[in-house]
C-alpha cells in the first residue's frame, strides 16, 4: 500500500498586541484608507519583549501536537521555516526541539522567505513517503517586526508576527500531500532583501547607521513577480496531482496583498468563497501566513474530508511554491481532553527540567575536567 503524508495536527500562535492602521498613522505619513486600498490590511500582531520567533513556534507546535494526539518523543524531524530566526545559529528548530522534549527528532531551519512553509511541507512529505520519517513537525514562524524600519511607510505597513504549525504523519492510502511544485529565480534576489548582517556585509556602525539591517523591497517589481507566479504555480501543482481547478475546494495563498490574491483567483477562475483570506487581521507574516490561514480555515469549517486544498506562496529569493493536499481529518475535531492537556503540560515541564539538567552536567564536566566519552554522558 502506498504511504502518504497526512496532516493530522495543526496549531497557531499570535501575539496579543494588535497594531492597527490608525496606530501606524500616528508614526508615519499614512492612513487607514491608504493601507486598506493598496494592501487589504487593517491590523497586524506585534510580538512583545518576552516573545520571539522561538516562543511563538513552540506554542504553535504544542497546539499542533495536541490536535494530533502525538507525543513529542515520537517526532522524527522538526523543520522551522523562518526569515527571522532566533539566532544566525543555532537553528531555531533546535530550540523548539529542546522545549518540546522531542529527544528523537532531528531539527533544522529552512530559509526560503515567504515560500518557506510550502518548501518545508514538500520536504517533510518526501521524507515520509520515502520511509525516512514517520512523524514530522513543520512550523512557519516569524517576528518580522524586529526587522522592519518603522519609519519606512512602504514596508512597515505590511508585516506582522505569528506562527503556525502542522504535524505530518505516515498513513496508508492516496491522501495527504498529493503534489508540490517549487521554484526560484535568484536574479531577483535584490528585490526583497536585508542587505547587511550576513557574510557579505557583516554588521558595522556604517551598516546600522544606513538602515541595512531592515527589510528593503522593490514593491512594484515584487508585485509584478507575484501576480505572474501565484496562479502558474497553483495550476502546475494541481496538474501534478492529476486534478483540475474545478476539483479544488479551497485556495490558501500567502497573505501578502489582497490585489495579488485577487489577481491569482481571477486567473484561476476561482470565486471568492473558494479563496481563504485573513490578511486584514494579521498582515504579511511571511512563512507563518499559510499555516496560520490553514488553521483558521479549519476552525471555520472550510475543509472537510476528501476536499482538495492548494497552498501557494512566493517570497524573497525570489522563490515560489505550491502544494496540493487532500484533506483527511474530520473538522471540527473534538476538544483535546483535559487529561491529555494535563499530560502534555507535565511533559513540557519535564522537558524543561531535562534541558536544565543537561546544561548543569556540561558545566560540571567543564568544572571537574571530566571528558565526554564516545558521545555518552
Task: Show unreliable segments.
Answer: none
Number of strands: 13
Mind telling me the C-alpha Rg?
A: 21 Å
**Which CATH architecture?**
3-Layer(aba) Sandwich
Which sequence of strands runs across the widest sheet? Answer: 1-7-6-4-5
SS element count, helices:
12
Largest sheet: 5 strands, mixed
**CATH H-level homologous superfamily name:** Thiolase/Chalcone synthase
CATH topology (level 3) name: Peroxisomal Thiolase, Chain A, domain 1
What class do helices, strands and sheet pairing give?
A: alpha/beta
The coarse silhouette is globular
Average of per-residue pLDDT values:
95
H/E order of the elements? EEHHEHEHEHEHEEEHEHEHHHEEH
> Span from first to last CA?
41 Å
